[in-house]
Amino acid sequence: MFAALITGRHQVDLVEFPDPTPADRGVVVDIALCGICGTDIHAYQSGQPYNPAICGHEWAGTVSAVGREVKDFSEGDRVVVAVAPACGRCAPCRAGQSDRCMVSFMSALGRDPLAPPHGGFASRIAVAAERVVRTHPGLSDAQAAQVEPTTVAFHAVRRSGLRLGDVAVVQGAGPIGLGTMQWVRAAGAGVVVVIEPNEQRRSLAVSLGAHHAVEPGAPADALVKELTHGLGADIVYECVGRPFAVQSAVDLARRGGSMCLIGLADENAPISPGAWLIKEIAVTSALAYTNEEFDMAMGMIADGRFRTEPLHSSTIGLDGLDAALADLAGGQSVQTKVLVDPRL
Asked: What is the DSSP string of 260-318?
């Protein structure tokens, strides 16, 4: 069996692995689709050391084998990858902070004891049974493969303290930004502005419910000032994942406003601490999600409150992964969410 791995800067290799077998408390999943994440793109751009277990971590498929101690899943079950549930035994759990469980956190990083030697850019994968969640029966495979990034955005908006009627700005209209925008609308924001340089993505943002979509820089600054009578946004969601965007998010917020950091920059960000202090900016950040949030997000995809279909722009085979990453890393791509089908 071959799995695609990002092995260096602008380098993708198909690496041969033995056919996976389930651990006693594990399952093997035949992968239907796996999404390309911003983390994958950053790794491709930088060539920095990259945990192979998360090289392709947005996958969905069907259980094809179960370990002897697994009782909750059977062959043929449709599942989507998630973080492990809180263990109830680690120090954060014992302190009543189950949302900070170390077992869940390590599984999100692909460093749990049963972490595989590759990610979901493969035909099959063996993982701990606690790492998968049964797919909502109302979801297609393409929807199921987008539950993981959808839940990342869901978790961020839940943490952000958004209030009904807020003027909210979302920086970046990639999959996470467009997902965040949809959850911000669902959570009751009064006005939602998306800032994005790509015209096609701006149009997509408006079709998904953004009230305004504008280019970054002077046009965005002017629009936010106009909409808020010069005050600035109540809350800004940073979904670009580039160093410069951290300070720009604070610049767009009003005094006493807030910023939610979601995009992960791979370099330190230059900031103006005086502006943060003078504005008394409240900051939240979001990494991954909790296991429980998966069912919440899946239910709202299934009932139509969150739309994944417009985000899915193309499907490729494993042999097209290198070219797709190059396109997405170039900064001018018209693609949004690219899904990889290892069967092609």
From this structure: EE-S--SSPPP--HHHHHHHT-EEEE--S--HHHHHHHHHHHHTTSS--GGGEEEEE-G
Q: Tell me the H-state helices in the chain.
A: 38-46, 91-94, 102-108, 141-144, 147-159, 175-186, 199-207, 218-227, 243-252, 273-279, 291-302, 321-329
CB 262 within 8 A of CB 176: yes
Model pLDDT for residues 220-229, shown as the tens digit of each residue: 999 999 999 9
Which residues share a beta bridge with 284? Answer: 260
Q: Is 74 left (phi over 0), alpha (psi -120 to 50) or beta?
A: beta
Single pTM value for the model: 0.93
283 strand-pairing partners: 259
Give the span between the Cα atoms of 323 and 342, in whole angstroms: 15
Give the number of other Cβ atoms within 10 Å of residue 101's Cβ: 23
Structural domains of the chain ordered from first start: 2-147+289-340 (3.90.180.10), 161-285 (3.40.50.720)
